[in-house]
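Q: Could you fold this chain for me?
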Amino acid sequence: MATHTRLFSSSIGMKLAIGLTGLAMVGFLVEHMVGNLLLLVGPDAYNGYADVLISNPFVIPAELGLVAILGIHVYKAVRNYGANRAARPTRYAVKRAAGHTSRKSTASTSMIVTGAVILAFLILHLRTFKYGPHYLVDGTEVRDLYRLVIEVFAQPSYAAFYVLSMILVAMHLYHGVASAFQSLGLDGPRATPWLLGLGQALAIIMGAGFALIPMWILMRTLS
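A: Sure. Below is the predicted structure, expressed as structure tokens.
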């Protein structure tokens, strides 16, 4: 037990935990994006998807699991960032992308910043949608998530904030996915280009997929 504790407290263990929890959250994001895109189909499809999730008896255990995964990811990422700062107390005067085989980029050097903003966005997102208002229909309060999303993203300020947040999510994934595979020891001379490409493709698809919804709603509202 002590050996396992020391492992996950070490630099390698922290990166391993960050990688595993990060990939778990990527899997959730893919499913979440596909479900959200049902909004483009119509209210019945989107609200039907939401009702299936809410009525699922495993939804609460799944949500608790996601909270635990997110908590571990954030905790280990902050500790890893602190350890790296302590190991290099003097910051570089100028940061540059290294080029060639190096993975250093704007996305990689801003992971802690994009992660912090994404966490703040997530709290607001849950407050707005998961714990958002119910609507009175024929004297009965009902949960109409389709209507709520339409009303929220019809506001240009919130739509712009959401799209900007999705750009930061894409930046986080751009480096994070390939870095997670590296931490798990799954990369190599042949695999690395493919993993980098996978991370970049996922970042673009996920960022664009999530950002499409508020952009579509806002354009429809303003037209």
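A (continued): Strands lie at 135-137, 140-142.
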